[in-house]
Amino acid sequence: MKFIFYLSILAGTSFFAHSSVQKEDHAPYLVYLKSHFNPCVGVLIKTQWVLAPAHCYLPNLKVMLGNFKSRVRDGTEQTISPVQIIRYWNYSHSSPQDDLMLIKLAKPAAFNHKVQPLPIATSNVRPGTVCLLSGLDWSQQNSGRHPDLRQNLEAPVMSDKECQKTEQGKSHRNSLCVKFVKVFSRIFGEVAVATVICKNKLQGIEVGHFMGGDVGIYTNVYKYVSWIEKNTKDK
């Protein structure tokens, strides 16, 4: 399935569309979690660790890094199996709370211009801050089921008070809400805006089934720093 996104950003208008020329945006920290089910996106946070939504714990999972285009190879491609998956202890399929998991790779990722780790935010972000939404899309030439194109767009962060007033945000604690200035007019896919990057640090990861309309709900990852560090420290 291909997703077309229209989004008015601040004073101007920005959109993802399958035009004749598609530019891949710079997002070397994104990894694709490939399985036989719905596509998911994670973030490389250390040489051998990926942070991802817990609802992306899927059978036959493979972690893909670097170039995602199957028809064009550039030497950056890496596919690594997970050797350990740690879901946040309080995660439940029936609740959107604590939708995080850590994936340990079978071997360290080889860094290059398309594979780089992203540091995690250690504090909250101020409301109104314009952050980068980073995810994956389908290129015009791609008729398959797996995305192959990194895409970024900008959107402002909402205050906690505003977030809790929304239909999506009121039932999710530890949340980060992002305001899409204009409602998406086509099919909306969570894989396309899977992460929130503020001041060059990972601030949010999408919450399963809580995307859509004019508000995006993300897990505010700074509140989980101690859990992440405890489980990923060198032993």
Structure description:
This protein has 235 residues and is mostly beta strands. It is 6% helix and 37% strand. The radius of gyration is 17 Å and the shape is globular.
> How does the major sheet shape up?
7 strands, antiparallel
Quantity of strands, as a count: 15
SSE pattern: EEEEEEEEEEEHEEEEH
User: What proportion of the residues form beta strands (DSSP E)?
Assistant: 35-45%
Distance between the termini: 42 Å
> What helical percentage do the residues reach?
under 10%
Q: Uncertain spans, ≥5 residues at pLDDT below 50?
A: 1-21, 182-190
Task: Give the radius of gyration.
Answer: 17 Å
Q: Rough shape?
A: globular
Number of DSSP helical runs: 2
Could you say which structural class the secondary elements and strand pairing correspond to?
mainly beta
Give the integer mean of the pLDDT values: 80
Output the strand order for the largest sheet: 7-6-3-4-5-9-8
